[in-house]
Amino acid sequence: EWSRAEVLGSVAQALAQAGDRKGALAAAQSIEGERRRADTLGSVAQALAQAGDREGALAAAQAIKWEWSRARALGSVAQALAQLGEMETAQHAVKQALAAAQAIEDTRHRADALAAVAQALAQVCEVHNGDVAGWLVGAFQQARARGREEMWQYIRAFAPVLGELGVITETWRRIQAVEAVVRGPSSA
C-alpha cells in the first residue's frame, strides 16, 4: 500500500505538471491512506496553481478532507496565484484557507494552520492588499466567540501581516477592545 501510494503520488504530480488536471486528481484521489492522499492533493494543487490552472488548483485543495491540510494547501495555492498576478483568485483562496483553519478543533493544529494562512496572506498583500484587512478583522471578531486563547492565536499569527498592511495600529485597538470584552468587567 505504501509503495502504491508513493507511485500514485508521483504520477499525480507529473500529470499536474503536464497540465492534466483530471488525470492528476484521479491519481491522487485513488490513494488509500488519508494523510498520503491529503499530501498528494496539496502537491497537485500547488503544481496546478503554478501552471496557471486556478480552477484545478482550488478543486484539488478543496478535495482535501482534513482542515489542517486543506488550509495549508489553499495557502500554497494563494501564494502561487499571487505570484502569477491572479490576485482575485488568490484572495479567494486565502479566505477559504482561513475558513478551513478556523474549523480546526484542536488548538495546536489550528494555531499551525493559522500561521500558514498568515504566510500566504503576507504574499498576497505584498502585491495588492485590497480588502484583506477588513475581512481579517472580521475573522478576529468571529474568533472572539471561541475565547481568549483563540484570539491570541490570531494575534500571534496575523500581527506581522497586519504590520505589512499598515493597519496594525487601528486593528490593534480593535483587538484590545475585543480582549477587554473577552476578559469582562471582573478582570478589569
Write structural notes for this entry.
With 188 residues, the protein is mostly helical. 81% of the residues lie in helices and 0% in strands. The chain has 10 helices and no strands. Helix 1 packs parallel to helix 3 (34-50), helix 5 runs parallel beside helix 7 and helix 8 (132-144) packs antiparallel against helix 9. The longest helix has 21 residues, at 107-127. The model has no long low-confidence stretch (mean pLDDT 81).
The best one-word shape is elongated
Distance between the termini: 58 Å
For the CA atoms, what is the radius of gyration? 18 Å
What structural class do helix, strand and pairing data support? mainly alpha
Largest sheet: none
- DSSP strand (E) fraction? under 5%
Give the low-pLDDT segments. Answer: none
Helix content bin: over 70%
User: Total helix count?
Assistant: 10
What is the element string, with H for helices and E for strands? HHHHHHHHHH
- Number of DSSP E strands: 0
Q: Taking all residues together, what is the mean pLDDT?
A: 81
Short description:
The chain is mainly alpha-helical. Helices cover about 80% and strands about 0% of the residues.
How are the secondary structure elements laid out?
Blueprint: H1 2-17, H2 21-29, H3 34-50, H4 54-62, H5 67-83, H6 87-102, H7 107-127, H8 132-144, H9 148-165, H10 168-183
Helix pairs in contact: 1-2, 1-3, 2-3, 3-4, 3-5, 4-5, 5-6, 5-7, 6-7, 6-8, 7-9, 8-9, 8-10, 9-10
Main features:
single chain, 188 residues, mainly alpha, elongated, 10 helices
